[in-house]
Amino acid sequence: MERQDILALVPSLQKICLRKFTSELIAQKDFINSAVVEFDPEDRMTAYCNGKEVWDSNISNHAKEKVSSFILPALFKEELIKTIDEMVPEMEKWRLYHGRFLKNLSFGGYCLLNKLRWTCIATIDYKKTAELLVKDEEIFLSYRYKLACLYCLCDDIATLWNMLSPQSQRYIYRNVDFISEDIITIVWSYILQGEETRLFRKIEREFPAAVSVNHYAFEYAARNGYKIAAQHFFQRLTAAEKRLYLVEAAQLTAKARSDTDRRSCYPCFIRETYSELFVYLLSQMNEAEKIEVFRTSAYEVLKCFLDWPWKDVFLEVAKDVWDFLPKKHFYSLLLHLFTSNCLATNRHREIFRAFWRQSPDVYKKFAIENMFTDCRLLTFLCGLKDEESTRLVFESASRQDKERVINSYIGLSVSYMFAKNKRWDCFHLLIDMCDITNIVAETAKVGYFIYSKFYYYDSQLGFLSTPDEDPVMKTIFHILDAIVERNKRKHLKQE
Fold this sequence. Notes:
The structure is a single chain. The protein is mainly alpha-helical. It is about 70% helix and about 0% strand.
């Protein structure tokens, strides 16, 4: 598949139908009403951290109940539920992203969710949705004007500007502080009045590197993930400026998307908007420019393609970046798949397994070596009870590596914590993967006992002196003995 075909991202007819049906289903008023979560709309962090999870769960569960009543083939129902899980979070992201424009509405804008417009690839069409909202008189005029500016709706900008009071217009002119979240609004207000030169003089004093108002607005929009505004001002650049700033803007956007993982509680930064913008910028490049972006930002590029809806082509893009991807970033991507709140879905587990299979052996070896010093991958694999992915990773490990896992400090601590917390299925999965022998098991028993002396304390009995006194240790020893016996029988059959 050529890279240009990848960026076109035309889904199959089946997926288009599934996503179209899902968008109609989750936009119904009874679904929206079932998902309303009360919160203080001014408390954006609390709203995002607490409300989002409850909202996603409510509307997903309601949709799945509805699907279960449909007379459809089981396989189609399963695909429909997967699509619901992918699309429902997009609605809440949109609402949170636009929270500052919806403050005067009840329930923080939930009432507008049935007005969302969707694309054929199951992303919300932010611009078409904005075209509807700027005409909604229930939203304050000043918010509608800002919304029109953010989405570069030129005709609506002019109309709404003329509807603003002279006092509001003057306020915009007097508040050019280059810190406000309304920079795009300020830029458009000066453009409307034909005062770009005056604005550029102010920009020049603060940002000497800016070469024009359009360049400044484009870079600002790219840095903040405002896809539509970035596209608009990119098209206003000269041909020379486009070639000069395109690669830098793409690198900046990919890095900004990656950085959102460290500030994910703030809804003003929605990583998918960065990803969509990044893919747009990539589509404007020639082959040499794309290779330069992949060379300098391979890790950040792949993270962009793990966002909805680009994950369908993630593996194809990965084929182009192996020459540029540091091994430590491969390991980070494996962890990211587990921590992106999506691995519970079958789709992300499939991506993890396919990405592992595609990776060169030196990358697999590096990841396995890291399991001896970093507990996260081992904890995620076994903690989520994903036997297929766990078995796949351990198949790439040598017998010596497997023995090191169970007898290393990391392996002992992870498995012991599973046992202490009564997560015996996770403990059993980890031990089972190590293909232990009697000698390894006896060594592990000593390790567990020593480890338990430091970390196990019974409030009733105090520090326990022998394995027989510790119910957790007794169960660990029993499981080890049972697995050793099973492995003996298995090896005898093979001989």
